[in-house]
Amino acid sequence: MEVVPLFPLPVVLFPGALMPLHIFEARYRSMVAYCLEHDRRFGLIHHDSDDQGPFLLEESRVGSMVRIDKYQPLPDGRSLILVRCDARFEIVHGMEQRTLYYEAEVRPYLDLSHPRSDAIQVARRQTLELFDAVVASMEEPPEELPDLDLSCDLSFQLAPLVQIDTRWQQSFLELRQETHRLERLDAVFQAAVDRA
Fold it and tell me: Do 20 and 80 sit in the same domain of this protein?
């Protein structure tokens, strides 16, 4: 377990995905300065204050452990950063606020089991076929799609491409088996194909 800074935002970031952030609040300027001096990591955790009220450090909340890949300071103290999600975490214990920003004791949030390689390859190919069918059915398909690697977790590669509400994204982030995540994607892709 370790103590990490937390950045609550109304977004969900999946493992492997990148996200640009504009840092302007004093507390998060302080957090970014701390991260740059240490290991460049902090926890991004979904929170929408309009929907959920004040941010609370509840145990077992799941978030994304991110690393600052790029940092661009701006003249007035703000900055632009690019973060990459390395893994998932869950809050073990919320810390008393010792800094301007939130901190929590966290631990890795790992999948519970890993299916046989032949079974997961079949599931990945099925999901990819459905995804390809969705793209083919679009009136204006994207000009460029990411390279997908069937040798590693496909669910988290495809999830950022699904434009759906953040509650669905957060529940997807919390699923602890790739097969379950692929099944969730299959349902979304099949519904899109059926509507086309």
Answer: yes
Burial of 67 (0-12, 13-18, 19+ CB in 10 A): middle
Domain shared by 104 and 123, yes or no: no
Contacts of 98 (CB under 8 A, 6+ apart): none
107-126 burial, b at 16+ Cβ within 10 Å, e below that, comes to eebeeeeeeeeeebeebbee
pLDDT digits (tens, 9 = 90+) for 51-101: 777 787 788 899 999 999 999 999 888 999 999 999 999 999 987 778 889
Are 29 and 97 in the same domain?
A: yes
- What pLDDT band is residue 196 in, cutting at 50, 70 and 90? low
pTM greater than 0.70: yes
SS3 89: strand
CB 77 within 8 A of CB 42: no
Assess whether 87 and 8 both reside in one domain.
Answer: yes
Structural domain boundaries enclosing 85: 2-108
Q: Which is nearest to 8 in space by CA: 37, 49, 51?
A: 49
